Amino acid sequence: MMKKLATWWAVTALVLICVTSFGLMFWASRTDSAIMDELAHIPAGYGYVHNLDYRLNPEHPPLIKALAMLPVLMFVQPTFPTNNVAWTSEVNGQWDMGAAFLYNSGNDAGAIIDTARVMPILVTILTIILVYFLARRLLGKLWALLPTFLFALDPSVLAHGHYVTTDVGAAFGVVLSLFFFVKYIDEPSTKHLWYAGLAFGVAQITKFSTPLLAPLFIFLFIVLWLRDLAAQWRVTDASRRAKTFFLKLCHYAWRCILIFAIGYVFIVYPVYFLFTSGEPMTRQAADTATLLTSFATGPTPAGQMCHGMRCLADADIWMAGNRVFRPVAQYMLGVLMVLQRSDGGNTIYFLGHVVQSGGWIYFPTLFLLKEPIPTLIIVLFGLGLAAWWTIKRSLPPGGIGIKDRIITYLTLHFTEFSLAAFVVLYWGYSMHSPLNIGIRHLMPTIPLIFILAAVVWKKWIMQIDFGAALAAENFGTLARSFLSSLTKYVFLVLLLAWLTLETLFTAPHFLSYFNEIGGGTQGGYHFVTDSNYDWGQDLLRLQSWVNAHPQVNKIAVDYFGGGDPHYYLGSKEVNWSSSMGNPADQGIHWLAVSVNTLEEAIQPLGPGQGQWRNASDTYSWLTALRPPSAAPGTLLGGTMGNVPAPDARAGTSIFIYHL
Q: Residues 640, 641, 647, 648: is their CA dihedral positive or negative?
């Protein structure tokens, strides 16, 4: 009876969590304009499903883009301008094709964008459900709701979960792959091997950060082999040890190879085969050669030996012209483009300077500023408590030895170890990479962090042995134990209530969310911008603001994002930039400018990074008219990242000035 009741409560709570998350994302999706990456991803995805052609946006796998365009193809049926030079002549003309498809072909851009976002929202909901089932392996039916709740109401998840981008898709792929991998380890069978392989393959077509699962799985199999080696060395006949453990190593290696082979042969290859089948092979080969000339140093000159990336580029160019290997070439092209972009960095505003890279502190800083404070308390307290328990248990040498403790831990807690290993691997790679453009890149690790934190909280709250107290008839101990657990429960519930209110009051401006330490949703731009704060999501809100102010007959717009200001504002809009000077000199007394553009124009360049910009691009005329003042409400910001105070704001990210 109790099990049935627990199941009913768990299912009911999970449904409510999913419905709430869906409603918040749906609201945001209907009020946000196209963000920057959607301008490329939407036409690319439509080309995949409508033309079976992968010439656009090869640096990202197809799953989310293709899924997003299926309902567009079925219900909207827009005109796809394949006669545009962005399709016929340009190499990877994704941005121009996006502008032509959404805004310049007679299509209803709003209908396309709104319809496209339905599938990413559903993928996010499916990810929430997967988080629950992965957590249930460690926590049970009811406690698994804790990390599920944290993930489902996380502002960053709600922000990126409703866009046609790959970040939450990557979280979906990682959680799916890890779930079936650890299930196979716990219950090895042919069926579970296939599930693990197929899940690994699905992960590979979500985002090109998921290939990190390959070294993770190799590492985990090595750990399993070392565990077996340590546990069975003494009980194995000395004359057979070498052969026994060599065969066991081969067995683990073979299982690992099979998982990779199943994923690539039965998922990755067929998907890329389908989406390249409509593209002329000569076009794919020519585009590959051009893109790798830019990104991977191009083909090797005659008479020279290839090395490093150049060898991979040569192989990819050759495969692109081969009918059998061209799907492999398209997948490999994306990987190479991502590797090269990761090495090159990206111009960003971060902590008072415009830099090419935020350095190793970028992602930890974002996590501390953009995760809600109650979530940080849960995560950091869990991390600290786990570290304390580990240190405490390692100090006394008595009882079980260190080696036996490790063996026991890996035997009983291999799932926890696997999740933690991926978090360490992924964060280590991300912190080393100079490509620092948003907390969204941490998305694959966020649900795993929440699960690991929940494991510690469950143990902390329920560590009192009520049964022993009852058996000893020590009712004082029992009362203190009950009161202690109840207090901890109440503390956790209060944190979750705080998170709920924080998220609800932020809606629908989830992309710009910063916690109170980071100045809140209105002030987070003082620390960092780009996809952390301003990705172009507020153009519809600028349209509403202009419509609500009839005195605005002309407005100069310097916009950063995936929308088209002229499409939404019509003849009232005048395209503008800093170098054009004060619009008032031409009789235009209103200026709307994206705060990301302002920060990158106004803030000083980072020292020692070899950057430069034209003086005319620094909005010096605006700062002369309105010197930036001290920033209120930012506990750590002070005067950092100040821009001229606007007269109004469209949403959070478009600053409006009356000149």
A: negative
Instruction: List CB contacts of 398: < 8 A, sequence separation 6 or more.
Output: none
Quote the CA–CA distance of 476 and 474 in Å, as a whole number: 6
Place of tokens 């005195």: 551
Confidence of residue 493 (pLDDT cuts 50, 70, 90): very high
Torsion of CA 597, 600, 601, 607, to 10 degrees: -170
Residue-wise pLDDT tens digits, 278-292: 999 999 999 999 999
Would the CA dihedral through 490, 496, 499, 505 be positive or negative?
Answer: negative
Helix axes 63-71, 38-51, angle to 10 degrees: 70
Query: Residues of 250-284 as b/e, b for ≥16 C-beta within 10 angstroms?
Result: eebeebbeebbebbbeebbbebbebbbeebeeeeb
Full DSSP string of 344-413: H---EEETTEEES---TTHHHHHHHHHS-HHHHHHHHHHHHHHHHHHHHHHS--SSS-HHHHHHHHHHH-
pLDDT of 2 higher than 80: no
Pick from 634, 636, 640, 602: nearest CA to 621? 602
Residue among 600, 608, 602 at smallest CA distance from 644: 602
Other CB atoms closer than 10 Å to residue 534's CB: what's the count? 29
User: For residue 231, which amino acid is it?
Assistant: A
CA atoms in the 13 A half-sphere facing the CB of 635: 7
- Cβ-based neighbours of 319, under 8 Å, separated by 6 or more: 325, 326, 328, 329, 332
- Phi and psi at 34, nearest 5°, equal -60, 130
- The 10s digit of each residue's pLDDT in 382-394 is 999 998 888 777 6
Domain ranges in the chain?
2-198, 278-344, 362-506, 518-658
C-alpha angle 218/221/225, rounded to 5°? 135
Tens digit of pLDDT for each residue in 300-351? 555 555 666 778 888 999 999 999 999 999 999 999 998 887 776 688 999 9
The Cα–Cα gap between 365 and 636 comes to 12
Cα gap 630→259, rounded to integer Å: 56
CB neighbours (10 Å) of residue 146? 22
Report the percentage of the chain scoring pLDDT > 90.
77
> Which residue in the block uniquely carries the two structure tokens 């605005």?
552
3-state secondary structure of 637: coil
β-sheet with 648-650: strand ranges across: 573-575, 555-558, 590-594, 654-658, 648-650
* Beta-ladder partners of 593: 558, 655
**Cβ-proximal residues to 277 (8 Å cutoff; 6+ apart), any chain:** 52
350 strand-pairing partners:
353, 528
Residue type, 40: A
Ramachandran quadrant class, 570 (left: phi over 0; alpha: psi -120 to 50; beta: rest): left
Q: 514 near 438, Cβ under 8 Å? A: no
